[in-house]
Amino acid sequence: MVRVIAVLEVLVSLTSLLSAGRRATERLLIDTCTIGRPGAGAGTMNEGTGAITTPARTAVYSGRCRLRQRAGGASGDVEAGEQEVSLRDYLLEIPWDSTSPEVNDVATVTASDDTHAVGRELRVTQVHHSSTLLVRRMTVEDVDDA
């Protein structure tokens, strides 16, 4: 009986701690973004112009977020296919109880104090999972560099 009470106290403490941590962490989500899932199919080509229209994205999330440089993440210029490209990856965070994005979803920063981030499109390359999430975190990279 004493052991059961001790386990329940730990669970209640963990729940309270997670709740407080989530509230505090969500205060850092001062940017806004949308996340969309690429449409299915290859798109259609305009015979006259040769331009390809890609299928519309399906909305996955819209709301508060935080974009930041990933500590120890990939960064710099690398050679790929005999061409030098810039490699940058970031962490994008959204509220912990949001719908989970998937790899290849595309996030667009819609508002930020960092004006260089606004309008930036970022492809989700990894979705982080944890039983003690404070925020839903994903690794993203610039779409233009992918």
Task: Write up this protein.
The chain is an alpha+beta fold and 146 residues long. It is built from 1 helix and 9 strands, in the order H-E-E-E-E-E-E-E-E-E. The protein has one helix spanning 2-26; strands at 31-37, 44-45, 52-53, 58-69, 75-80, 83-95, 106-111, 121-127, 135-142. The strands form 2 sheets. Strands 1-4-6-9-8-7 form a 6-stranded antiparallel barrel.
What keyword list fits this structure?
single chain; 146 residues; alpha+beta; six-stranded antiparallel β-barrel; two-stranded antiparallel sheet; 1 helix; elongated
Please indicate the percent range of residues in DSSP E strands (runs of 2 or more): 35-45%
Largest sheet: 6 strands, antiparallel, barrel
Can you count the helices?
A: 1
Kindly state the mean pLDDT as a whole number?
A: 83
**Biggest sheet, spatial arrangement of strands:** 1-4-6-9-8-7
Count of β-strands? 9
Q: Helix amount, in percent?
A: 10-25%
Structural class: alpha+beta
Unreliable parts: none
Q: Using only CA atoms, what is the Rg?
A: 20 Å
- Report the principal-axis shape: elongated
> What's the helix-strand series?
HEEEEEEEEE
Rounded to the nearest angstrom, the distance between the terminal CA atoms is 57 Å
Give the topology, please.
Elements lengths: L1 H25 L4 E7 L6 E2 L6 E2 L4 E12 L5 E6 L2 E13 L10 E6 L9 E7 L7 E8 L4
Antiparallel strand pairs: 1-4, 1-7, 2-3, 4-6, 5-6, 6-9, 7-8, 8-9
Brief overview:
This protein is of the alpha+beta class. Helices cover 17% and strands 43% of the residues.
